Amino acid sequence: MSLRNPYGDFEITDPQAMRALAHPVRLAALSYLQKNGPATATQLSEHVGASPSVTSWHLRHLATFGLVVDGPPPSGSDRRQRWWNAVARGFRYAMPDTPEGTEAGRLLRTEMMNEALESAQHWIAETEPVLDPEWSRLGGSANTLLVLTPAEAEAVESAIEQLLAPYVQRRDAGDTPADARPVRYLRMSLPEATT
């Protein structure tokens, strides 16, 4: 496992793939598949705000970049339906250094941040009010200003990923403790402009 990719995420390097994933329906479909596992376009359509045929078209578009695949249905499911799977539990990309790549990376970053903000708002409105007090106390946020060099910023990000990696990887092995539950960590690093 790469130190720069300790979770085994799908690494996106093609600006065209970044641009494709920057569409809200595609990003929502991929996020759903990564979180919940295989689904049909009809099942996904309820969660992505598009009709089954439009959802199917977006899934085929994601498949051209290798982000999803159609595969065998889960056991006990209708084999006549087309089931879609995410190829990895997560994805990552580095901001390209070409003008076209930078534009595509910025589009994807914007859509990912929009999705993260919606997720946080949903958590505040729907999830947090019904949590047990113990879990509610563990939900938190911070707004910390760091003064870093580019190398230090990269080291901080790497240290955070290394800290989280065992919980991302180990939980796939089926040894999840009985009192464990999914906890989403939303991280945004926002370098500020110098004046």
Mean pLDDT: 89
- How big a fraction of the residues is strand? 5-15%
Q: What is the number of helical segments per DSSP (H or I, 4+ residues)?
A: 7
Q: In CATH's first tier, which class of the domain at 10-132 applies?
A: Mainly Alpha
Any idea what the CATH architecture of the domain at 10-132 is?
Answer: Orthogonal Bundle
Arrangement of strands in the largest sheet = 2-4-3
Biggest sheet, in brief?
3 strands, antiparallel
Estimate the global geometry from the Cα principal axes: globular
State the share of residues found in helices, binned by percent: 40-55%
Please identify which CATH superfamily of the domain at 10-132 we are dealing with: Winged helix-like DNA-binding domain superfamily/Winged helix DNA-binding domain
Tell me what you see in this structure.
This protein has 195 residues and is mainly alpha-helical. The protein has a domain at 10-132: Winged helix-like DNA-binding domain superfamily/Winged helix DNA-binding domain (Arc Repressor Mutant, subunit A), CATH 1.10.10.10. 50% of the residues lie in helices and 8% in strands. The chain is built from seven helices and five strands. It has helices at 15-21, 24-36, 41-48, 52-64, 99-127, 133-138, 150-170; strands at residues 10-12, 39-40, 68-71, 83-86, 91-93. The strands form two sheets. It has a three-stranded antiparallel sheet. It has a two-stranded parallel ribbon with strand order 1-5. Helix 2 (24-36) packs across helix 3 (41-48), helix 2 crosses helix 4 and helix 3 packs across helix 4 (52-64). The longest helix is centred in the middle third of the chain and has 29 residues, at 99-127. The radius of gyration is 18 Å and the shape is globular. The protein starts with 9 loop residues before the first strand and ends in a 25-residue tail after the last helix. The model has no long low-confidence stretch (mean pLDDT 89).
